[in-house]
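Deliverable D4.2, example record:
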Amino acid sequence: VQLQASGGGLVQAGGSLRLSCGFSGRTFSAYDMAWFRQVPGKEREFVARFPWRGDRLWYTGSVRGRFTMSRNGAKDTVWLQMNSLKPEDTAVYYCAAKTNADPLDRISSYESWGQGTLVTVSS
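Output generated by the structure prediction step:
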């Protein structure tokens, strides 16, 4: 599986960005997908996850109501629409995929990772 994340950039607080993650190499519909983010010196954290069945879409509390994750099987792509951005959202954002039966909420469950895209929110 290859994942290609894009869409990061510099935005002012209150602004919006839309991240994209292109998926190739396997059957997209069989994969659970997730977005993570990481600030230098801190652990990587979940942002959102979208299981292949389409249920149990989940967001971390700090982004709930501001971020929306979506996926499109025809385009083999997932997106993360980020609205009302805050300086604390500044991080490198990664998309990841898994097809195993390991828990959705475990970072180590994810088998494939994109290269990361930097989001910087200025105050």
